[in-house]
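hey can u check if this looks right to u? its 436 residues, i copy pasted from the old doc so theres a chance i mangled smth
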Amino acid sequence: MQIPQQVAYIIDKLNTRGFEAYAVGGCVRDTLLGREPGDWDITTSAKPEQVKALFRRTVDTGIQHGTVTVLIDRTGYEVTTYRIDGIYEDGRHPRQVEFTSDLLEDLRRRDFTINAMAYSHDKGIVDAFDGMGDLKRKVIRCVGNPMERFSEDALRILRAIRFSAQLDFSIEKETWEAIGQIAPNIAKVSRERIQVELTKLLLSDHPERMMDVFETGISRYIFGESYQLLRGKPDVPENISRLLKEAALSERRNLQEAAKLPGKKYIRWAAFLSRAGADGAVRILKDLKLDNETIRRVKTLVSWAGRELPEEEAFVRRGMSQMEPEVWDGVLALNGYSPAIREMTRRIRERGDCLDLKHLAVSGQDLIAAGVTPGKEMGEILGRLLEHVLERPEDNRKEVLLGLGKPDVPVEFRNSIPSAAVRVQEDLNCRQKLEQ
């Protein structure tokens, strides 16, 4: 295995002082799979104070649990003493830990076999629980008894599903059954940690594995009262079982399509929450403690989900004016709009058509200079001028807009300034009548 120079340095320095040390966990797993590890963790027989004595720059990131971060070249590497976890009283964290000199005892406490492997150049791979075999079989399996592992830390329930999505692995039968039995324990996990796992799952190459959250039964404890917004309510009671299965299959197919969408969390969350509606999506994401920017963008995307858009530039400009450019790109992807609409979007951006008040050729100061009284009337005039240039971008010139907006123009004329919003609605009403 190839390991970073800094990791090899830490391991070698511990070895030369008589301590065992290995790269451990996810970094070993990912390297064996040919993936780039996100970080490198090291496990050692050295006690925290012994680690601190060996390295010039360290941080006590979790010293009560045996973890010291060693800083090298402005990068932190967590070095953790071999340990045996005590009783998990809260279903998330051990009340106390006991340091040990036995590497196998440390590996035995870990969640899944593929995360319970260690490596050093001197000793090679230490794999006491057939993690390499499970990598070859593409299986997520708990170390030891799955009920015990999930009872210790309920977050592992979601981690099993998330790893299956990221790695495209199946979940071993006994592990899968244990998830269903221990499902209520997920309530012990903080909303923030649940959200992080679900976001990683949705951003994976297999976002359809989100449906495993429903099929294992843990969704009721994650989404609470919002559960029905995502599952829907069958209309025919005697067909509940069949309808639920059909709905789940349909939703799985929809989420498979989501894998083709850009890997932005607001786009993936919007694809998943589209059936919940804009208000339902906001309620769910607030409960999961997502950041406000993501919630705002998801709300916009969900409100646009499935909306038809005529292939005319005025309609496209109107849509673009209601959101940030990257969110509009999300709408294009989410709704699968035609190449013609995508080309119109490109041309509008290339020309620099005005899409907001900031880029309107006249400002409030210009209108004041032209004799418009500040206040509600000015805001209405600016709004109508913007509507005008969304319809006719070539008119976004100060002399043209001041001519339309100055106070000596009759009110009747100013009120007749073409409004793209009104025109859009009238056109849509007309189309609906024709279809009927």
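The chain has a mean pLDDT of 87.
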